[in-house]
C-alpha cells in the first residue's frame, strides 16, 4: 500500500482520505525499491546533505551578500555559501562520474556539456533571497538529465532537515529528520476552488492576480524555493504551482520534476509542453506549471485565453 506524503505517527495529512486511514493500519516504513540509478541517487543524496551542512554553517553566522551577473546577464544576489556548496557538489560529482556533463548555477558554463548524454543540473541553493532573509525556505537541488529528460532528483531543505528524492520508475520519497523514508503520492483534487495554490512569498504580479481570479483559487500556501513548492505538491500540501515569467532555470526544475512525476504529478511549460534539459539556453522561457496531474490538461486549456491576453506566445 502507498503511504501518503505525511506519515502515520507524524504530521497528519492536509486532507484526510479513506486511504490515509487505511495506510495507518500498516507499517509506515517502506523499503526503497532498487533503481537502475541507484548509485546516482545515493551520491546525490549524500552530496545534498553535505552541501546543506555548508549552507547551515553560513546561515547561523554573519555573511556578506554580493551581486553577480547570472547566465542571462541579470543582476542577482549571491553569498559565499552558494559558491562553497556549489564547488563541493561539482567536484565530487566529477570525481564519481567523470564522463558526465555539469550545468551548475555558480559554475562557468561551457558548451562541453552539450556533447554529453548525461548531464547533472545543480542549484546549490535554490532560494538565496530566503537564505539572506533567514526564513529557512531554501534548498539544495541536484538533478540528472539523460538525453534531455530528467531522471534523478534530490531536493534538500537543511533548516527543516527535509529531503525529497526520486529516480525514474522508483517512486518519490521523503525523509524528515531521523525518520525512515516514506513514499509520496499527490492528491487527486481537481476542483480549482478546493485546490491549494503554491505561490511565492514575494508580491504577486497583476498577471498572477488575474489568473487566481479567473481560476477561482481560494486556498494558498506561500513558500520560497521552486523545489520546496513542487515538493509540497508531492506531499499533498499543495496541488498546483504556476510560474509565469521565464525566470526559472533548468537547474531550478530538473530535480523537482522527477520528484513530482514519480509522485504522480506533472510538470510542463505554460503551453503544456514538456521541459527539456541541457539546452543551449538555460532558462525555462515558457514558464512552468506543476500540478498533481488531476486537472493539468484543464489548467493548460484554461490558461490559453489568459496567455493570449498577456501577449504570451511559445518561444
Measured as a percent range, the helix fraction is 25-40%
Overall shape:
globular
- Poorly predicted parts: 1-14, 16-30
**Number of DSSP strand runs:** 14
User: Mean of residue pLDDT?
Assistant: 88
Walkthrough of the structure:
By secondary structure, the chain is of the alpha+beta class. It folds into two domains: 38-183, Fructose-1,6-Bisphosphatase, subunit A, domain 1 (Fructose-1,6-Bisphosphatase, Chain A, domain 1, 2-Layer Sandwich), CATH 3.30.540; 196-310, D-Maltodextrin-Binding Protein, domain 2, CATH 3.40.190.80. 31% of the residues lie in helices and 23% in strands. It is built from eight helices and 14 strands. The protein has a seven-stranded mixed sheet, with helices on both faces. A five-stranded mixed sheet has the order 11-10-12-14-13, covered by helices on one side. Strands 1-2 form a two-stranded antiparallel sheet. α2 runs antiparallel to α3, α5 (206-215) packs across α8 and α6 runs parallel beside α7 (250-262). The longest helix is centred in the first third of the chain and has 22 residues, at 38-59.
Describe this structure in a few short sentences.
This protein is of the alpha+beta class and 315 residues long. The chain has helices at residues 18-23, 38-59, 80-96, 128-133, 206-215, 226-234, 250-262, 296-310; strands at 65-69, 75-79, 101-104, 118-126, 139-146, 149-157, 162-167, 172-176, 182-183, 196-200, 219-223, 240-243, 266-268, 288-291.
Amino acid at each position: 500500500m502507498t503511504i501518503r506524503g505525511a506519515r502515520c505517527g507524524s504530521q497528519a495529512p492536509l486532507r484526510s482520505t479513506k486511504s490515509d486511514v487505511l495506510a495507518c493500519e500498516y507499517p509506515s516504513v517502506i523499503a526503497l525499491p532498487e533503481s537502475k540509478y541507484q548509485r546516482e541517487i545515493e551520491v546525490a543524496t549524500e552530496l545534498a546533505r553535505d552541501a546543506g551542512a555548508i549552507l547551515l554553517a553560513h546561515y547561523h553566522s554573519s555573511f556578506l551578500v554580493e551581486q553577480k551577473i547570472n547566465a542571462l546577464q541579470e543582476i542577482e544576489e549571491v553569498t559565499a555559501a552558494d559558491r562553497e556548496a556549489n564547488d563541493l557538489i561539482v567536484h565530487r560529482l566529477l570525481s564519481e562520474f567523470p564522463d558526465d556533463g555539469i550545468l551548475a548555477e555558480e559554475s562557468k558554463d561551457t558548451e562541453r556539456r552539450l556533447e554529453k548524454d548525461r548531464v547533472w543540473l545543480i542549484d546549490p541553493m535554490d532560494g538565496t533571497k530566503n537564505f539572506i532573509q533567514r526564513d529557512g525556505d531554501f534548498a539544495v537541488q541536484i538533478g540528472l538529465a539523460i538525453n534531455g529528460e530528467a531522471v534523478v532528483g534530490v531536493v534538500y531543505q537543511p533548516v527543516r532537515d527535509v529531503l525529497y528524492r526520486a529516480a525514474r520508475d522508483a517512486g518519490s520519497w521523503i525523509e524528515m529528520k531521523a525518520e525512515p523514508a516514506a513514499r509520496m503520492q499527490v492528491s487527486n483534487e481537481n476542483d480549482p476552488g478546493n485546490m491549494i495554490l503554491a505561490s511565492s512569498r514575494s508580491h504577486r504580479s497583476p498577471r498572477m492576480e488575474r489568473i487566481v481570479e479567473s481560476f477561482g483559487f481560494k486556498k494558498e500556501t506561500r513558500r520560497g524555493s521552486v523545489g520546496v513548492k513542487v515538493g509540497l505538491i508531492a506531499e499533498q500540501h499543495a496541488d498546483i504551482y504556476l510560474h509565469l515569467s521565464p525566470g526559472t532555470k533548468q537547474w531550478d526544475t530538473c530535480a523537482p520534476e522527477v520528484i513530482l512525476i514519480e509522485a504522480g504529478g506533472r510538470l510542463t511549460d505554460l503551453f503544456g509542453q514538456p521541459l527539456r534539459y541541457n539546452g543551449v539556453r538555460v532558462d525555462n522561457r515558457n514558464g512552468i506549471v506543476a500540478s498533481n496531474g488531476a486537472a493539468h490538461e484543464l489548467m493548460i486549456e484554461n490558461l490559453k485565453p489568459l496567455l493570449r491576453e498577456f501577449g504570451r506566445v511559445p518561444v
